[in-house]
Amino acid sequence: MKSNETFKSRLLGLQGNLLSFAYQLTSNREEAQDLLQDTTLKALDNEEKYVENVNFKGWIFTIMRNIFINNYRQTVRQATVVDKTEDLYHLNISQDSGLNTPEGSFAVKEINQALNAFSDEYRIPFNMYVAGYKYHEIADKLGLPLGTVKSRIFFARKRLRSELSDYAR
What pLDDT is recorded for position 1? Predict the structure, then answer.
């Protein structure tokens, strides 16, 4: 029973240091508080795994660092977008593009309709550019001079802006 009380008092004694470390990791007060709480709970749940002659402070800080890393990895996994569109269209738009709103979905349909009305000589280079190809890659792939590709993309963008001017307002 005595070692249980010692463990808890040592853990409580490190709360200030742990909070500072958590803040360094997260740069956010609330997230640092959450990380401190998660670390404290994890340490208490794993008290029996602590070996007495091991650096207690290092053990606790390692727990915190590992929780932070695991949470970060989970956040990154959740933010990963799997794009199954043919030209990877969704990967090339910002995540807050409004696609998930009814208005955003409608706007995308309008843009696609306008683009589909373009002749191939304008639509194909423009779509390739939007998909992330560089000008010289488009020129190589289509067998066109670089200046021609740039001007076709410029005119396609200008025409699209003109046709969709209602959305700009």
Answer: 47
